[in-house]
Design goal:
The structure holds 2 protein chains of 2 kinds. Chain A is of the alpha/beta class. In chain A, 55% of the residues lie in helices and 13% in strands. Chain A folds into 3 domains: 2-159, Beta Polymerase, domain 2, CATH 3.30.460.30; 165-308, Rossmann fold, CATH 3.40.50; 334-418, no CATH class. In chain A, 38% of the residues are buried. The chains are: A alpha/beta, B mainly alpha.
């Protein structure tokens, strides 16, 4: 049994291709089910996001399995296979395992360390389970992918530092206020930048939004979007004491927020901290405000500076993450290899033990009544020991076989020699 | 027995501090768990040490400088553990356990014999007066630790230089809250400690207050914390200012505890404190 990955991503395919081969989320379980039904394919998981479409499969034969998968994707989306092939990447065995672990750990993402991908992989797995397209190999495989991702997240700082300006703002807000629930944000200017930053804050728990803009109607419109409150531009400084965070991005040529206003507001709010984000150029907020106690003012360059530092940091952390992935890949492959030989070892044991039992029973039928309990016990122990001794060397040999490339051939010989029934993969519970 | 326990306690304190610091540096989850367990272990062993001395000496082990150090350290570690249950701030331990360790080391370098309790100290006031004060002192100690952490974090936010500690330290709001919480714990204990001290003085020396250096300095400490509490409750002091006051206040606590006996005589040789730990 081997793990195979067939797919395409933002690295190999432009969006025109990606959107053509994307699978709708509500039918993913059915797709996974029919992929599982393909020849040479034993189990399947389908991941379909806006940046990548990938099929993870446990296949019985490498080449045939992969061709079946590519053929399926082409056929399903009615794309000529030749058109698809240049964008497709294929991974097999150790490369496939490493690829999936890296994807789940967000090491293969467009923004390395972005947290959404793990959730998407988990979704994909759940859908596959709904379509009963997974069994013990992929079950184990996917769980290993999740635990690898978790290790990467807890043992490296790859996902902790913000690499976009608006995430940097959220991160800073968290270090100033802790939880953002119950906090109020005021948005000065109703432009796109403000909207984006406010959206991030609301997604991260900010509960109330106030919007002000020179054109009141636009303020009202944006406020409505966040079920917030619009405030008239000439009166917004009266509300400063109510807000914890201010995002400002107006087109004004000079400052719209002055130190004296903030100072007065701080007094009214009894010095509760205030976080001001000035994303306008030229700047909206008087830089002198940063020197007020308990007030933290960041302009666009400050945020950009943090983002740059974080990006460098992330690259360093990614190296640590790759090492974790390497360890986890090794440990999974060890398990997978053993999977090929374990059924044989088990059947061999069962067969020998069966023989032992039946022969022992025969003997006991003849002379069992004359034997004491102690003698029965030692007879039992002796036969058991014989079986163990005989099987000791073959077991070691079979386990060693797991590491060899032509294990299948040798395994077949062993099975033939001992007359073991043709073993398909036996579904073992973990 | 108690000296053996003291040695074990010091070793466990060292391991606790080291693992707390190692966690702060590496952020490895197993280290955090190890640190938590060892720190609790240190507290249990220290508790056993205090109980052993209590039964061996037959008096509350707060009568010598050694015992005062030890009890102070025990209160500090205990209060840290309680706060940790409430706030669970992983990095707090790396700053709080060193303080407890230093206090225990103070005990280690001072004569540790169990003494024959002098008549002046044979009073029910001893455990009450000293106990109250050191619980209060421990709260002020943790407040100073939180204040120190606040200043580091606040400086990074203000200067916009987010160093390695930025991600490791918690948000400044919760640090400010811990500082405030510890102040509201410490201040009543300090107040009651001074009152019971006055009552004891009346009983033992026939006067409530004699402007002895120790008394004067404890009053100065009391005024500092009273001002800070007032500022926080009514004026809206917080953040950096409150953190600086908390650190300054704790410096005064330490001076009252040690400086009055060790530093002051060097400057004013003819002023001697009547109080213990001299």
């Amino acid at each position: 049994m081997e793990i195979a990955v067939v797919g395409l991503s933002h690295k190999t395919a432009p969006v025109e291709i990606r959107e053509k081969v994307a699978f709708a989320p509500d039918i993913l379980h059915e797709v996974a089910k029919s992929v599982r039904g393909l020849d040479h394919v034993r189990e399947a998981v389908i991941l379909s996001t806006c940046n990548r479409v990938e099929v993870y499969a446990a296949v019985r034969s490498r080449e045939d399995g992969i061709e079946a998968l590519i053929g399926y994707i082409a056929q399903y989306h009615e794309i000529p296979i030749e058109e698809l092939r240049p964008h497709i990447y294929v991974f097999i065995g150790v490369d496939a395992v490493r690829h999936v672990f890296r994807v789940a750990s967000s090491l293969d993402s467009m923004v390395v360390g972005e947290p959404q991908i793990l959730g998407q992989v988990k979704d994909a797995y759940e859908k596959a389970q709904q379509g009963s397209a997974t069994a013990h190999v992929l079950n184990r495989f996917m769980h290993k992918a999740f635990s690898t991702a978790k290790r990467v997240r807890t043992e490296t700082r790859i996902a902790q530092s913000a690499v976009s300006v608006s995430f940097a703002a959220v991160e800073l807000a968290r270090k100033i206020f802790g939880e953002l629930t119950g906090r109020t944000v005021m948005v000065i200017g109703a432009g796109e930048m403000c909207e984006l930053a406010a959206t991030h804050l609301v997604e991260n728990g900010i509960s109330s939004v106030m919007v002000t803009n020179r054109t009141y109607a636009r303020a009202e419109k944006l406020a409505e979007q966040f079920s917030g409150k619009a405030v008239h531009f000439d009166a917004f400084s009266k509300h400063l004491d109510e807000v914890d965070i201010i995002i400002s991005s107006t087109g004004a040529p000079g400052h719209v927020l002055h130190a004296a206003d903030v100072q007065a507001a701080m007094k009214q709010r009894r010095q509760k901290p205030m976080f001001l984000i000035d994303i306008a150029v030229p700047r909206d907020i008087d830089p002198a405000i940063n020197s007020l106690d308990n007030v933290y003012l960041y302009d666009v360059d400050d945020l950009q500076g943090i983002v740059e530092v974080n990006k460098k940091e992330r690259a360093k952390e990614a190296e640590k993450a790759e090492e974790i992935v390497r360890q986890e890949v090794d440990s999974f492959l060890k398990w997978l290899k053993m999977l090929d030989v374990t059924p044989t070892i088990r059947q061999l044991r069962e067969q020998f033990d069966g023989i032992r039992r039946s022969e022992l029973d025969k003997t006991l039928k003849v002379m069992g009544d004359n034997l004491s309990k102690k003698e029965l016990k030692s007879l039992e122990a002796m036969t058991q020991a014989i079986v163990n001794k005989i099987l000791h060397q073959p077991t070691i040999c079979l386990k060693a076989l797991a590491d060899e490339s032509d294990a299948d051939l040798s395994l077949d010989s062993v099975r033939r020699v001992f007359g073991l029934p043709e073993a398909d993969v036996i579904d073992e519970e973990e | 027995m108690d000296l053996w326990l003291l040695r074990i306690a010091i070793i466990v304190y060292l391991i606790a501090t080291a693992s707390q610091l190692a966690f702060l540096v590496t952020l490895k989850v197993p280290l955090r768990k190890l640190a938590a367990w060892v720190t609790w272990g240190a507290f249990v062993i220290h508790t056993a040490l205090l109980l052993t001395r209590l039964f061996a000496g037959g008096y509350a082990p707060m009568a010598t400088l050694h015992e005062a150090y030890s009890f102070f350290g025990w209160c500090t570690l205990g209060l840290y553990l309680v706060l940790q249950l409430r706030y669970s701030i992983p990095s707090l331990g790396a700053f709080a356990t060193p303080l407890a360790l230093i206090l225990l080391l103070g005990a280690a370098v001072t004569p540790g014999e169990i003494i024959e309790l002098p008549p002046a100290l044979q009073s029910g006031w001893l455990p009450i007066h000293v106990g109250l004060l050191f619980i209060g002192n421990a709260a002020f100690g943790i407040a100073a630790v939180a204040g120190f952490m606040y200043l580091i974090q606040e400086r990074q936010l203000k200067k916009k230089k987010l160093g390695l500690l930025f991600h490791r330290l918690p948000n400044i709001e919760v640090l400010d809250e811990i500082g405030y919480r510890c102040l509201t714990i410490g201040f009543p204990f300090l107040t009651l400690g001074i009152i019971t001290g006055a009552a004891w003085a009346q009983e033992a020396w026939g006067t409530y207050w004699s402007w002895d250096p120790k008394e004067t300095w404890s009053l100065i400490t009391w005024f500092i914390y009273a001002a800070l509490l007032h500022g926080r409750m009514t004026v809206g002091w917080r953040g950096r200012k409150a953190a600086l006051w908390a650190i300054g206040g704790f410096a005064c606590v330490l001076f009252t505890f040690l400086g009055v006996n060790y530093v002051l005589p060097l400057i004013l040789p003819n002023v001697q404190s009547l109080h213990i730990y001299g």
